[in-house]
Amino acid sequence: MMIHAILADDEVLARQKLRQLLREEPEIEIVGEGASASETIDLVRATRPELLFLDIRMPGMDGFDIIGKLSVGSDSVVPRIIFTTAYDCYALRAFEIHAVDYLLKPFTFERLHAAVQRACEQIYATKQNAGRSNERRSQNASYTTRIVFKSRGRILFLPVSDIRWIGAEENYVRICTETDKHLLRETMSHLEEKLDPQMFLRVHRSAIVNLQYLKEVRTEPSGEFIVVLVNGHKIAMSRSYHARISDWLARS
């Protein structure tokens, strides 16, 4: 995976030296160079790099002003920052804004390499987390948000968030809301596949509950597990499904 980077320094020789050192970093691809603050801002907005090597004293404004400009607006984009400067007096401020590193000129290849590796680790971790978030959103999008069915001569569009619990009755399922009950010709397994498992949990071969209406889980004197809804309704929970509740509680 290539990491796109921009070099921002008003000194041509400084950019040339940095570019030469970065040739030894196969993961880094330089997509632009800025010699002034305005050039750097335009380049970052146009190319959206993951990494910016930024000198602090630049014509027009300093490196911190550049970061401030990049942070403004709904389409803001601030890459990971590695400062490259001849001044040591800004180091504390640099790390206060969570810069990856602060390289004092002249720096060695070893020092640059350590900074690049640290930046790569942070960038890869961010991308992996974003990928997992996108995957979860994609999975959530595949679950139904409402159930459409005929009831008493009407076609109902029932939001799944209104469902308190669902019970099996032979070849049917009974969907229970706060005020109504609806009988559908459907199987529990097929309905369970349609429902978001972060919202609905099967607690018995014949029962699925909406977790937002779950009040408590307890053991009766007889040893039977039950779940209690906020309205006081009790639903038997089989031992084989008890582990599901435990896993859900552990994640909550």
TrEMBL record:
SMART domains: LytTR, REC. It comes from the Bacteria. Keywords: Phosphoprotein. The modification 4-aspartylphosphate is found at residue 55. InterPro entries: CheY-like_superfamily (IPR011006), LytR-like (IPR046947), LytTR_DNA-bd_dom (IPR007492), Sig_transdc_resp-reg_receiver (IPR001789). GO terms for molecular function: DNA binding; phosphorelay response regulator activity. The keyword Phosphoprotein applies. Gene3D superfamilies: 3.40.50.2300, LytTr DNA-binding domain. Residues 4-120 form the Response regulatory domain. Residues 147-251 form the HTH LytTR-type domain. The keyword tRNA-binding does not apply. PANTHER family: STAGE 0 SPORULATION PROTEIN A HOMOLOG, TRANSCRIPTIONAL REGULATOR-RELATED. This is Two-component system LytT family response regulator. It comes from Tunturiibacter lichenicola.
